[in-house]
Design brief:
By secondary structure, the protein is mainly alpha-helical. It has nine helices and two strands.
Length: about 260
């Protein structure tokens, strides 16, 4: 069994104000996407300007934060927020959903595409390879917070997480599994795949399929949310239910991209 490294969730203190590692991880993800996006935009024939990348990241930040929060409220804990509507805005108390954030970002992509004269998939194909870095950073933030831990296990690398709900039991460090699969591994695959010209929709499809596959895999090791538990038996979780249609959509996008390549 490994020792959980107790890290103060608060990275910096400014008098009564504090900056948490979880929030900083979001900034790391956006900064990485912005930097990598500007690098690719600078390539000859990219079809993008650095200013467009700046605008897209700004739009994306808004979509991620609003979508992730609303997604968590709707998908994971709606009764609680119906009883306490003011808590919807208390992001610092936790509760962000990847699938909600994805929907928020897709809405921003559509608006950005209309504004710039690009197609929706031209936008999503461009930014998709950089998203896994943000996913990796976010999961590291979850690990530092000691939240979203895994199921009880006796594997040699199991950890005892702080807090009453985690209990005195060693558990899978599922946040690190997700940081690795959804983050580092998916980033390597996406960056390699997108480095060469691909049919429109293919990059977006690979991201959707890759993320869904990684998330569903890790869900077998991650403790389901306490307020939901297992759904439809003793193995299906909300994360699986939300990821399955995303994976099917990704597979269809890949198939259609190579079967019927789009010009734009």
């Amino acid at each position: 069994m490994l020792i959980y490294p107790h890290i103060d969730p608060v990275a910096l203190h400014f008098g009564p104000l504090s900056v948490r590692w979880y929030g900083l991880m979001y900034l790391v993800g956006f900064a990485a996407a912005w930097s990598l996006g500007r690098m690719r935009a600078a390539r000859p024939g990219s079809g993008w300007t650095r200013e467009q990348v700046d605008d897209l990241i700004a739009w994306g930040m808004l979509g991620v934060i609003l979508g992730a929060r609303l997604g968590y409220v709707l998908f994971y804990d709606l009764p609680v927020y119906l009883d306490n509507p003011a808590e919807v805005f208390m992001i610092w108390k936790g509760g962000m959903s990847f699938h909600g954030g994805l929907l928020g970002v897709l809405a921003c992509f559509w608006l950005f595409a209309r504004k710039t004269g690009k197609t929706f998939f031209e936008v999503s194909d461009f930014i998709a390879p950089f998203v896994p870095i943000g996913l990796c950073a976010g999961r590291i933030g979850n690990f530092i917070n000691g939240e979203l831990w895994g199921r009880v296990s006796d594997v040699p690398w199991a950890m005892i997480f702080p807090g009453f709900e985690a209990g005195p039991y060693p558990r899978h460090p599922s946040q690190l599994y997700e940081a690795t699969l959804e983050g580092l591994v998916l980033f390597a695959i996406m960056f390699w795949f997108s480095a060469s010209p691909r049919p429109r929709r293919a990059v977006s499809g690979l991201f959707a399929l890759g993320y869904a596959s990684a998330r569903i895999t890790v869900e077998f090791f991650r403790e389901p949310d306490a307020q939901l538990g297992f759904l439809f038996g003793n193995w299906l979780t909300m994360g699986m239910i939300l990821s399955l249609p995303l994976g099917l959509l990704g597979a269809w996008l890949l198939w259609s991209a190579y079967r019927r390549p789009a010009a734009a």
